[in-house]
Fold these 2 entries.
Entry 1:
Amino acid sequence: MRSVIDIKELSVSEIDELVSVAKDIIANPEKYAHKCEGKKLATLFFEPSTRTRLSFEAAMYELGGNVLSMASAASSSASKGESVADTAQVISCYADIIAMRHPKEGAPMVAAMNASIPVINAGDGGHNHPTQTLADLLTISREKGRFDNLTVGFCGDLKFGRTVHSLISAMERYEGVKFVLISPDELTVPDYVKRELDKKGIPYVETTDLTAVMPELDILYMTRVQQERFFNEEDYLRLRDSYILTPEKLENAKSDMIVMHPLPRVNEISVAVDRDPRACYFKQVLNGKYMRMALILKLLGL
Ligand code: CP
């Protein structure tokens, strides 16, 4: 029985295998339509979500399985004080696999230690979001055709943006990858992420200037300033519109650069950018469903 809490728990060859299964699902959906018959996925979401919860549920339905859904902490016995460890043991009596989102970093790991079924981290606080990274990797594979020799720019809230931490963790394993970290000084990537890059000798630069670095990027990964992680409303209001991507700002970008965003977006990408063929954020949404299908199959041994 195996869980996925951190993207690093999947080796490069396992990522390749998941990408390859996801592409086969896209090409031959009928082959997979009954693979999970008789199986149940429990989605336990202690924090709001549109994409992650519903794509996990769509993934399970498209595999022929069923879903038990807990959409908020308020609707569960967590509101009466039940622990994550007890919840995980209880849900193990009802379901075959769990996808869990929680505002506390490490909560899905506690669930995995106490469950007798696989647990997938669907986002824990400002820490990790491995299945968003799987969605991102399938998007990069389909749009760029490779994971190596890419200059990847991350822009916005790199401190609290868990999708950034997980994607850096995944991409740093490929040859010739360089990171450009674009953020206000208050929202730079955490030191533990930089220490890891330093230890492995992976090149990165930190800057506040998106316009200056735009021409060198192969991928621009925009992020929302994470209001829910701020202690101080004033700081959020001051920082929330630090970067707003517009068609004008993309004029200096490579013609084959891709623009990614895990969504939801607030103001950081103007809707006018949606018409640019380089905009890939809605493709990421669909790719997330296919990669979650591939991951469910893998963890259930199907
Ligand atoms: N990308 C992402 O995690 O979106 P949701 O918060 O809507 O699940």
Entry 2:
Amino acid sequence: MALIFVTGNHHKFKEASEIAIQHGIEIEHRNIPYVEIQADKLEDVIRLGIQQACALLNGPCFAEDSGLFIQAFKGFPGPYSNFVFRTLGNDGILKLMVDETNRRAEFKSAVGYCEPGLKPKVFTGGVEGNITLEARGTLGFGFDPIFVPTGEDGRTFAEMPAGEKNKLSHRARAIEAFFRWFKQRKTVDR
Ligand code: IMP
């Protein structure tokens, strides 16, 4: 039976699918609108979100919440990234940072898994990088054109094919941690 990924974002589903295939896990996309609370930590947002989704679905499922944490802004937009992306967008972030020399930022991801009657489990992942001076690239989504991961060749996530981003990204790291736990747990439960 396929594991349900609750998300309205087809980019996220595509990224997760590539990782799932490598783990021999079949995942299915379901868009169940759950209420996202406002909280400073992604872990708290996803814990309540996945509990709701699981109750609505009445079955096992996982979801993911992510954000861009800019050091010069003390972590802003962080858990408010979705709102900031929809309002300011990449151009707005670049304008806010125009005189800023500290370009360091981190993408963070929290994956929540829940099944009826169980407490939700949360897995996290992160990737450090820098905010560019201008947007570059057309691949990926969201803040990808303005984020260059540290330790790579200077390309933004939006200049990397999906498979390459998926080896480095915050989401890939959190989902990997979840899938590793999920596979092991199934073996233990048998
Ligand atoms: P959410 O997890 O859907 O709430 O995402 C928060 C915001 O961060 C959205 O505006 C996304 O577009 C953006 N975001 C999340 N993950 C990524 C990513 O992998 N690359 C670029 N932007 C992302």
